[in-house]
Amino acid sequence: MRPQTTLRTSVSIEGVGLHSGHPVRATLRPAPPDHGIVFVRADHPDTDIPAALESAANYDHATTLSLRGVSIGTVEHVLSAAAGEGLDNCRIEIEGPEVPILDGSALPFVRLLPAAGFERQGASVRPLTLQRSVEVTRGDRSIRFTPDGAGLTVTYEIDFPHPIVGRQSLTVTVGPEEYASAIAPARTFGFLREIEIMRARGLARGGNLHNAVVLDEEGIISGPLRFRDEFVRHKVLDLIGDLSLLGAPLKGHVHARKAGHALHIEFARAVERALRAPAEEAAAPAARRLSILGT
Ligand SMILES: [Zn+2]
Question: Nearest CA to 212 among 294, 103, 108?
């Protein structure tokens, strides 16, 4: 079992918010063991928003955390970078309502972490282990967990009726090196027609050709891809970020098919229920005995 890890010092990064279009700065600060990843908005310094499933509030094109009326948007890429690189304890202060989109990938965050340096802490990571499978299905979209392997392996399949995207599938065993080289650089992507609809709803105001792969009907209008299958790699990036809301690394194989943030969160909640279930089942016979004794 590896020790928990935090940063040696604080580091900041600036960019625009994808949806608001406003400039925003994120500062990542060290935190003590068992603190987890916690967001705090500079304009609400008394409200700590833990990166936890109970804070997940909205998953429309990005994941938003919310607590007592205070929200932080677009948290999934920085969370993915933290989970992928094994950063367990960190306070992320945001001067604005959402994490900056930067280049649309997790790479700027991954590059930022060594600038702060990692510090091993005097407590161990307790991975989440589950001995049975869990599956959520919505039509032809699904995510399945099976208790295979020593770490986290993700398989993702997508199928977009577009000449550049089409069917893509990727399996990756998540570790810091593999994450930094194969997953972190993959940028978010969007279809021009959907971006126009989002703009009309007041979303994606900060979106441009430098922070997303933008597709029109025939091709890409935002320059060359970083990987031929950059699209499915970004879906893996998002899934790793959303699964980190479980609060500890999950061990096993997660197989997602045509999913997105909403299904990622629904799946993570199903895993959380399954993780709690053995304890509840073990407690049930004792509860039954007590009720017999009481009658
Ligand atoms: Zn994303």
Answer: 103
Measured in angstroms, how far is the CA atom of residue 284 from the centroid of ligand 1?
A: 41
* Per-residue confidence (pLDDT) for residue 141, from 0 to 100: 97
Query: Is 210 in the active site?
Result: no
Could you tell me what percent of the chain has a pLDDT over 90? Answer: 79
Residue 93: which of 18, 24, 34, 32 has the closest Cα? 24
- Sheet containing 252-257, strands listed edge to edge, beginning at the edge strand earlier in sequence: 134-138, 141-146, 252-257, 152-160, 166-173
- All residues with CB under 5 Å from ion ligand 1: 188, 238
pTM: 0.92
Q: Which of 19, 61, 253, 261 is catalytic?
A: 261
State the pLDDT at residue 65: 96
Distance 186 CA to ligand 1 centre (A): 9
